[in-house]
Automatic annotation (TrEMBL):
It holds the Pfam family NTP_transferase. This is mannose-1-phosphate guanylyltransferase. One of its GO terms (molecular function) is mannose-1-phosphate guanylyltransferase (GTP) activity. It comes from Rhynchospora breviuscula. Residues 2-233 form the Nucleotidyl transferase domain. Catalyzes a reaction of the Smirnoff-Wheeler pathway, the major route to ascorbate biosynthesis in plants. Belongs to the transferase hexapeptide repeat family.
Length: 361
């Protein structure tokens, strides 16, 4: 089977991290978010993943040179010259997707994490005889997603409304689809939104079905949701593969520490923390609800919560980083500095306190 991952878009909501790498390569729980998806696609028989790209394709392709072999999945690229939206890229990649077998193919938004459940999606798709199946999940705040109204018993979608202004329902599009090749006949080769233009039509033809995704789900394309997604992901690791989580007196709740990271004496880490490869966490550091990316150094007695520390940054001793502070790549925070929120662009040095959330250029 084949899968197409929508990796376009500029990832503006995840700046400053996306100033260094395209959104799908931003680390989540110690590996690029897109790898979580590809690793889950492989066991259900996906042999080729097509990346629908409109932004810095060379970065993605260089990255995958290293991983293609390890993953055992062929990675190809379909590049847009202009942004084609969420459906246009399917028309563009038509010849790559269709191989005459008539098999359905997966389409994924690149910024969603969940337990995926691709095998169950295939089984459901094969059972209903419709043209397309989308995964849906329940959320409290549906207005920032695509909302689905469906017949509970059969899963048939009656309406699909992208980012509704008034309440339609609380089941939302999870950004994970299985589509028959015939869906491609509905998409013209031009910028098109699958959510606004294609799904509503398939639904009105009564050929669109939805499966409620069991387990957790999150779109991690915004900092706050990224941190929430990390909590949900670590929770699901606790249930499904607890041996991957850290243990010890310095650990509180669910914590993932890369084997190459060094943790000093007297640290207290957790809950809901990921510490990436090569990180050095000096003695007495306190970390909670945060993501510490590859190569970061946190000096003695620093305290970090509800924040993301980008690749190869350093945090000075006794510094306190809080309230959705996002440090880009290679940022250096001085000793005893306090940051209360704030987005710090790559390669900056922070010598004085950031007292309210702001962008530091
Ligand atoms: N190739 C390509 N070209 N990809 C694109 C383009 C484009 O022009 N525009 C967006 N994408 C990709 C993004 O990289 C992302 O993987 C996916 O399409 C969805 O775009 P987002 O910008 O993340 O959309 P959203 O989060 O506001 O809404 C979408 O996701 C929700 C679930 O997370 C919609 O699909 C909603 O219906 C859905 O509920
Ligand atoms: Mg998104």
């Amino acid at each position: 089977m084949k899968a197409l991952i929508l990796v376009g878009g500029f990832g503006t909501r995840l700046r400053p991290l996306t100033l260094s790498v395209p959104k799908p390569l931003v680390d989540f729980a110690n590996k690029p978010m897109i790898l979580h998806q590809i690793e889950a696609l492989k066991p259900v028989g996906v042999t080729e993943v097509i990346l629908a790209i409109n932004y810095r394709p060379e970065v993605m392709l260089n990255f995958f040179k290293e991983f293609e072999e390890k993953l055992g999945v062929k990675i190809t690229c379909s590049q847009e010259m202009e942004t084609m939206g969420t459906a246009g890229p399917l028309a563009l990649a038509r010849d790559m997707l269709v191989d005459g077998s008539g098999e359905p193919f997966f389409v994924l938004n690149s910024d969603v994490v969940s337990e995926y459940r691709f095998a169950e999606l295939i089984a459901f798709h094969n059972s209903h005889g419709g043209e397309a199946t989308i995964m849906v999940t329940k959320v409290d705040e549906p207005s920032k997603y695509g909302v689905v109204v469906m017949e509970e018993e059969t899963g048939r979608v009656e309406r699909f409304v992208e980012k509704p202004k008034i309440f339609v329902g609380n089941k939302i599009n999870a950004g994970i689809y299985l589509l028959n090749p015939s869906v491609l006949d509905r998409i013209e080769l031009k910028p098109t939104s699958i959510e606004k233009e294609i799904f509503p039509k398939i639904a009105s033809d009564q050929r669109l079905y939805a499966m409620v995704l069991p387990g957790f789900w999150m779109d991690i394309g915004q900092p706050r949701d990224y941190i929430t997604g990390l909590r949900l992901y670590l929770d699901s690791l606790r249930k499904n593969s607890p041996s991957k989580l850290s243990k010890g007196t310095h650990v509180l709740g669910n914590v993932l520490v890369h084997e190459s990271a060094i943790i000093g004496d007297g640290c207290l880490i957790g809950p809901d923390v990921a510490v990436g490869p090569g990180c050095v966490i000096e003695p007495g550091v306190r970390l909670s609800r945060c993501s510490i990316m590859k190569g970061v150094k946190i000096k003695k007695h620093a305290c970090i919560s509800n924040s993301i520390i980008g690749w190869h940054s350093t945090v000075g001793q006794w510094a306190r980083i809080d309230n959705m502070t996002i440090l880009g790549e290679d940022v250096h925070v001085g000793d005893e500095v306090y940051t209360n929120g704030g987005v710090v662009l790559p390669h900056k040095e922070i010598k004085s306190n950031i007292l309210k959330p702001e962008i530091v250029m």
